[in-house]
Amino acid sequence: MSPVHSNSTPDVRRRPAQQTTLFPADSTQSTEQGPKARTGSDLAPIVTGPGGSISGCPTPDCPPAFSAEHGAPRHEESRTRDAAAHCGAESARCSADASAPLVGIARLAANSPAAETQRSSPERPEYFLLPVKSILNRCDSKRVPFEWTINPYRGCEFACKYCYARYTHEYMELDGSEFEKKIFVKQDAAPLLVQDMRKYSFASKSSGGVYPEHIAIGTATDPYQPAEREYGVTRACLEELAKREGLSVSLITKSNQIVRDIDLFKKIAERSELSLNITITTLRPRLARLLEPRAPRPDLRLAAVKQLRDAGLAVGVSACPLIPGMTDRDGELEAVAAAAKNAGAQWFFSNVLFLMPSSAKQFLPFVREKFPKLAKQYEEWYAKNGYAPDEYRKQMSQRVARIRQEYGFVSRPWEEKTRKTKQPQLSLVLQGSAA
């Protein structure tokens, strides 16, 4: 039985972290070593907060919410982003003090053994087996319209230059630049999900008890990155969801590998509400390769949209993020929408680029190197703020609204239901999500 996803009955007792193997700081010394170094005396008790996050910080599996109103000051941003920045600062201080004990997910990551892989390319990332205690994580941000997330992996090999989720590696005391280099495979996905689903409610508070809680798959990592071919954590989760009924589930990916699981999607859709989203930021292959170095080509993603729709599944396209000066030129967003419609996409949405500190650290140097003419604009817009200027965001919001109307796109199914509950907080988020 694979150590990654076992179908055995779960042991509800938490397994202690292994303390017999200690990992040196240089993880390149041996493929059997973990990503961080700690001596035996440094292995302090694990202290976690809600959802398995570092104590005092919300779970990193819950994405930061975009501002509900244009021009909202930094203190109005989501708790996740504020806490991530705080944890990042704490991480830097801890790194400066080699004697500081690791706690929570950082300690688990430091003790994660290397995962076996058939890949031999020198460019492949390092894979580690992460012994998590939960696969279904509650999203504690009240400004995103879903209650639960499933992220089968930590880190993502697609290496998108703009990826906001780089901050999640900071919870493990790793730099955001390691996001695509050190991939953590969550173990025992199937039995953990069986256990976790006991927490799931078919009458969510956000809907006034009318609709089930929503599970969003792939909010902080791509569930169909190359690791999925070997470790199958995503499929293990889908197999468990397919056994249940009355759920509300969505999934987002940049990979055409998603079509592999059409059989499971059909089973889930027969008994629960399911919506699939494929991200396509540009139709230009060369630009896509620059921005998303290891993700499948845009045409392959469009082909996946068509194949999923031909299978009778509910599918839409995300053009997130809309990148100023790169993917926002006249007609480009419209071309993506037209191609999506031709492929059968039922909905379309986009948000302007949002840069968390860990993402800006990677993206701004990339802009200076590859798009020097845009460097000054980006420094002015993003050096001290994660958001583009209000006026630009308003213009893009209006543009997306026109596109949606022109091509007759509908709203994402679970979002439409959330709207009908008339919850003020969620309503603001959904209105702002068009840009």
Radius of gyration: 21 Å
Segments where pLDDT lies below 50 for 5+ residues?
A: 6-33, 37-58, 66-96, 422-435
Strand content: 5-15%
CATH class: Alpha Beta
> Architecture in CATH?
Alpha-Beta Barrel
Q: What's the tally of helices? A: 15
- CATH fold-level topology: TIM Barrel
Say how many strands there are: 10
The overall pLDDT, averaged over residues, is: 78
Shape: globular
The structural class is alpha/beta
Number of domains: 1
CATH superfamily, by name, is: Aldolase class I
How do the helices and strands follow one another from N- to C-terminus?
HHEEEEHEHEHHEHEHHEHEHHHHH
Biggest sheet: strands, sense, closure? 7 strands, mixed
How would you explain this protein's 3D organization?
- The chain is an alpha/beta fold.
- It has helices spanning 79-96, 104-110, 167-170, 189-196, 227-231, 233-241, 262-271, 285-291, 298-310, 332-342, 357-370, 375-382, 390-407, 413-420, 424-432, and strands at residues 126-130, 136-138, 148-150, 153-154, 182-186, 214-217, 248-253, 273-279, 315-318, 348-349.
- It has a single domain, classed as Alpha-Beta Barrel (TIM Barrel), CATH 3.20.20.70.
- Helix content is 34%, strand content 9%.
- Strands 2-3-6-7-8-9-10 form a seven-stranded mixed sheet. The protein has a three-stranded mixed sheet with strand order 1-5-4, with no helix packed on it.
- β7, α7 (262-271) and β8 form a beta-alpha-beta unit.
- The longest helix is centred in the first third of the chain and has 18 residues, at 79-96.
- It is globular.
- Residues 6-33, 37-58, 66-96 and 422-435 have low confidence and may be disordered.
